[in-house]
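User: Teach me something about this protein's shape.
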Amino acid sequence: MTSGTTTDDWHLTDDVGQFLARGGEFLRSRPAPHTVLLTVAENLRLSGDRHYGDAAPEFGLLDGAGGAGTRAAFLRTPPHPLLLTALTEEEAAALAARLAGAGHEVSGVTADRDTAAAFAGAWRRVTGAEVRLRQRMRLYRLGELTVPRQVPPGRARVAGEADRERLARWFEEFSVAVGEPGVHDPQRWADERVRRGDVMFWQDPDGTPVAMAGTTPKVAGQVRVVAVYTPAHLRGRGYAGAVTVEVSRAALELGAEEVLLFADLANPTSNGLYQRVGYRPVSDFAMYDFG
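Assistant: First, the predicted structure itself:
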């Protein structure tokens, strides 16, 4: 059964306040699958509409049956990919037609696996653009935090003012490793993390940092672990697991009701690691690039 969605059913705006006032309850109703949209919208609300780039963000909401509430949403911060909540194939096709017809230049899409595939296929049909699957990801939720049986020597600490250069360098290396070089400015990323105090290092007994992991600000009761990184020459020693446990523990101690993270499905090592320390699969996501 189809919903009868047309291109006119989507309400578009460039105002994050309007987007959250109208669609915030819907997004918070399922915070785990909506985690990225919630985080990005909150950063825009707090830091302004140029937080992710020089172009104004775009938002869209799809009304429920009879105009009651919201049943779907999207968010885009050019030049980054479109972020979508779950859509039917018909809804995805209607949105693709609406955006293409209005001349929007969409660079890609990130959404749950089926929605991303449906929108990418519709965008290809409407625009003739080349479509390439860039990444398949699995969203995990923390169950019972499990400390590894063998914890490497050293301890965790919060990255501070003196760590800015290392944070920026490691984030740049991390971005290259995950296939997103140049997407975010490393120095700005480091500045924000130092200001918020939401990156931890694992340091060896000599005090030298050997791995890092960060968290997003708490939104709708949830925190997401991000930027888990160990330099290549230090991998395989348990540092990533140790620092992931510590940032997860810190998130729980700060009152997070849910702790989430994404893992690249092409990396069995990281997926195995997260499950060993207590993370459990929620759902699969995909990212497509458009030519």
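Now, about its shape. The longest strand covers residues 131-142. Residues 96 and 219 are 29 Å apart (CA to CA). If you'd like, I can walk through any region in more detail.
User: That's plenty for now, thanks!
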